[in-house]
Here is the input.
Amino acid sequence: MRIFALVIAALALAGACGEPRPPADGGPRKPSVRFKHGDLPAGWRRSKIDGTALAFDHAALHATITAFANCKGIEDVSLSALVQQELVGVEKRDVVTKSEAAVDGREAADWVVKGELDGVPVEMELLVTRQSGCVYDLVLVSSPATFESARADFAGFVKGFFRAIGWRSGYLAQFFGGTALLAADVFRQTFRRPFDGRELSRQCSQVGVKSLTIVLTTSTFVGMVLALQFAYGLARFGAKLYVAKLVGLGLVREMGPVLASVLVGGKVGAGITAELGSMAVTEQIDAIRALGANPVRKLVVPRVLACMLMLPLLAIYADIIGVFGGLFVCVTDVGMDPRYYFSTLISVVKIRDVLHGMVKTVFFGFFIGLIGCHNGLRTRGGTEGVGAATTATVVMVSITILVSDFFLSKLFWIF
Here is the structure.
């Protein structure tokens, strides 16, 4: 991957011309991209430089955007080295900024460089990232006077480019495949000796004890809101006496376990991803491998088991607190006797209902720990990558819990 295509682009802006290079076998190639009209910022038009680049230019800004793809012989080459390869041919170059970026959580190198191409002053931004065994180079070349305006368009181009090549679908495929492989590895490592009980107890404290406050607050008001809504809703039909039964069943079977899992999952999952992600970007996980230890056994297994053990206990805690929150509203607003509240609740809520919610939280805990660890271990791109991975974890955990809740509920009703 060389800068010659970009040199040709700059020369074209200056009124010069050059000879194109044919692509090497397995080397740089033109990305297979079909852009829709809305994927390109206004004023940009497609141009043909050579067979190895997808290029666009903007006459008013005197700028060119070029995209390369290389899928062979670059697996062990660092992104910074690839950026430096792109700068071959740039004279009097001055690196303004160079940073580790993140594109949808993937490692990327982002450099801004000033220099000259065949005596023509230019300013450039180079973004290099990996996807599915390929390296993608996106390069902006502009005159210094219009660089900031062209750079704003370049940011929009990057998003449209990866959307057009199916980056998101590839990301989802990697996520589901990577999570499944990690789950299998967790099962294998869980039953190997010796078992680190001390780390497991520490993670149980992180997941369980430090989540009591958020569960206490939310479950109290959820119970109160359920009682309030049922009381006023059923009053139209003269059925206020059924409030305790509905509050008990709603909390024990669904609201308690699901809300506790979503809230704790967001907090705990984000914490796990941030912790492991920081270790990943600072190469601490690579150091663990270098010392002969297994990162899955040392880091992932205790966290997944802690989530699976503590979520059912937190769900029971949420059920109890929510029931007392409903009692408060029933006594103060409905005028119900506390003894009648508890007697009707006990008559309708069975052990099976409690187990229904507890068993679901075991699965929820497994999903929370697995997703948090998976996103943490694959974090790239420095602190920005850690932030992107943490956000993705919160979203994925919430969606996974709600989707799996439906299928688990349906399964339990069948059996």
